Amino acid sequence: MEHYDLAVVGAGPAGLSAAIEAAGAGMGVVVFDENAKPGGQLFKQIHKFFGSKEHKAKTRGFQIGRELLEEARAVGVKAELNSAVVAVYGNRELAVSQGEKIKRVKSDAIIIATGASENMTPFEGWTLPGVIGAGAAQTLMNLHGVMPGKRVLMLGSGNVGLVVSYQLLQAGCQVVAVADIARTIGGYGVHASKIARCGVPFYLSHTIIKAQGDGKVENVIIGETDAKRELIPGTERCFEADTVCVAVGLSPMSQLLGQAGCRMVNEPQKGGFVPKVNEYGETDIKGIYAAGDVSGIEEASAAMIEGRISGAAAANAAGFMPDGEFKARFEECETSLAQLRRGMFAPGRKGAEQSETDEGIPLSRALLSKGYIDENELSAFPGFRDCSALSETYPVIECTQNIPCNPCQDVCPKGCIHVGNDITALPVLNPKASCSACGMCVAACSGQAIFLVQPHYEPGYALVTIPYEFFPLPQKGDKGTALSRSGEALCPAQVVDVRDAKALDNTRLLSIKVPSSHLNRARFFVKGDFANG
Question: What is the pLDDT of residues 129-139, one digit of tens each?
């Protein structure tokens, strides 16, 4: 029987982080993963992460995955892929399926980091080809370069549904609608805004009645629901679509922990049945830990920190990490984790009715119900400034929720933007600072919620610089249409400049010339004649 100091089940963000921490302390570590490649969900995530620099903010998920793999190799972590752990026992023994064989492995400690699985919801026609999970759509697009469909209806407005909707647009799909039975959008408003300005409509308090077609999805019927979530007759809408993406939440894949005899509890706010763990992620069975989504659904940034804590705790318990070093490491990780668990989307506030920001500013009702901020709501927020009367270029920040994120503050060389020590605070513009128009804040914003405005570019015209992550990339001189926050065609626009520097990390900066009357409204660009929309 093989023996290791530590066995980690799952090579995703939590598992790799745990393995790196423990191996760095000197433990002999093996990581088992059922997939052919390590990295878990990270390599499907092409968007930029939130948080601060220490949380790898403004870094794309697949880049973080590469960094973790390099760290793991550097500290000698052994990875066994195509290896499904089919059993974990309370005596810290594992059964691992590899091809036609099952081998037994013994370890002094085990960290379970198996992540989560997608939930599904049944409706008439849900077994038709063309009904897929949002994670499956990500796999097709971002790992295999395959479009899931041409016309897609997204069910679910949480972060997964919003992020995948945007990535569907990037892949060239048309997202015909985002529907959700909830009364308000569940994910970050900045994610919703990205797809709303591309013209994607939101249907809140709506559910799918049925998907239909001849052997595959050809159209989808949704209907409005009342406060009791019952269908309102006569509200049916039919969408021509060949794909339904389902993003209705995740459930922890905690079966191995239950099998091992760990105490399990049902906690809906964490996603379902999870192990009871202490502050180090250790279960009630000594030497068995849980880290990441398997112990409660959160963002990947939190999963990585939880993995670090469990890996360090296992190293400390086995005598590889001195108590003083472990205490300092734990306190560092706890402080970092606490930053992510603050703000409007904190785990303790999940599902709670919220009417204002932590600063006491009324939330944008339009954002919660339609995916974009009404123009008359913006002036209440400290990141927005009506630039009509200004003579210089200045940033406009349309970040209106308390999300843990501060790269905009860190990258600004002129101090135009202030967030402070609390990374969930709303960004504030410094009226005394002079913007250099470098555009780094626009590119660094993980929510693509920052724009540069130059009010007096030419007589009668303003210049608006927007983040752009689509192909084909418009070229200087291209003429087209400026779109509003809601995706409405506003006015003719012309591309004046396209910036694509390495420091921008593939977020291109598109500067478009628009009539001065639209400088506070133009937020997206599509190539083509304005008269034809």
Answer: 999 999 999 99
Q: Specify the residue for token string 């030419």.
A: 458
Give the β-pairing of 428-429 and 272-275: unpaired
For residues 106 and 118, the answer to whether their CB atoms sit within 8 Å is: no
**153 neighbors 118 (Cβ within 8 angstroms):** no
Beta-bridge partner residues of 210: 124, 221
Average pLDDT on 460-471 reads 97
Which helix (H) or strand (E) is 416 found in, with range? none
Mean pLDDT for 202-216 is 98
pLDDT in tens, 88-102: 998 999 999 999 999
Mean pLDDT of 427-435: 93
Q: Do the domains at 2-117+250-340 and 120-246 have one common CATH topology?
A: yes
Q: Cα(348)–Cα(344) distance, rounded to whole angstroms?
A: 9
Q: Which two tokens stand for residue 498?
A: 């396209």
Evaluate whether 367 touches 189 at the Cβ level (below 8 Å).
yes
| Among 489, 358, 376, 486, CA closest to 422 | 358
With beta carbons less than 8 A apart as the criterion, state whether 95 and 1 touch: no
pLDDT digit string, tens, across residues 287-312: 999 999 999 999 999 999 999 999 99
Amino acid, res. 141: M
Domain ranges of the chain: 2-117+250-340, 120-246, 377-532
- Both tokens of 161, joined, read 């549904």
Q: Which residue has the tokens 């606490």?
A: 338
The reported pLDDT for the residue numbered 531 is 57
The CATH code that applies to domain 2-117+250-340 is 3.50.50.60
Range 120-246 classified under CATH 3.50.50.60: yes
